[in-house]
Amino acid sequence: MATSECRKLRIAFIGAGGIAGTQMRCFQDMDDVEMVAMADISEAALERRSKEYDIDDCFADYETMLSEVRPDAVSVCTPNGLHAPAAIAALSAGAHVIVEKPLAMNASEGKAMLDAAGNHGRKLVIGFQHRFDPKAQFIRKAVDSGRLGRILFGRVQALRRRGIPNWGVFGRKELQGGGPLVDIGVHVLEAVHYIMGAPKPVAASGNVFTYVGDRKSETVCRWPDWDHETYTVEDLAVGQVRFEDGAVIHVESSFAAHIQSDVWNFQLMGDRGGATWDPLSIARDDNGYMVNTEPGWLPKSGFESTFGAKLRNFVDHVLYNKPTLAPAEHGLMVQKMMDAIYLSAEKGREVDIE
Fold this sequence. Notes:
The protein is of the alpha/beta class.
């Protein structure tokens, strides 16, 4: 097993699709990481990644890979329905694990993953990258310093006007667990929850609506011709989560909403100040005036930099025992919030979160 004295972390991949390729692109630039193997049921995906990143050990079955290669760490890059079995198998084989969001299909599976990590003494990290964004860190430090006071309310939005994926299994609830809420809404929800200090959720209410995705594509859009016949997820999810400290988050997420343009944003309101992600600003009262504060400069922000930062943090956490910004416990709390929003929509009332 890799320890803090080892030069390289031997990492393997379960799943060799698009998100695995993004990870591999980041890992190949890290001197203390060696990509040793990958497993996928698609021979074409394995062949493509093998050529791109010079990974020779390829397997159709991840159990065989874990047994023969015995990697130090595993990245789970599968559709959501395989997150739990793949992660538990890797943890049981003695590997540390990072799993792409969301943690699992539901909180019950997520809890089993955390239990496996604890039982086998391995580290389990959730692939939440937006908390690594310099904009998120700017607001988090304002919260930690008390500049916003007690957080009262957050509004998170991950809204696409017409952005139903026409690839993968994003429209199949039995393989994904849900639609835009678990695919894109989770990103903004996890960032706000982290910035707030990861309070404990206690109850949620929500509604989900499907009105475009289960029909044949007839509107000109960037991703036309999705598989409407197998589409079983929502187009729009809205919800509200209450927390033990009295704070509330309102969530809006869509693959298809009749809005002027896509929205990716969040706001926080506290009793001493507030914050907005885009445009990035802190709003407070100062010397009798309402003042908006913006940073004069921030490090580079964007998908590639934040995605790379989360993987770097995972390597540092495993190899050098540095703290992780994305513990699996956070992933489980976010999973419970999403589960509760879906359950509330089904039952037509607010539901408790255990």
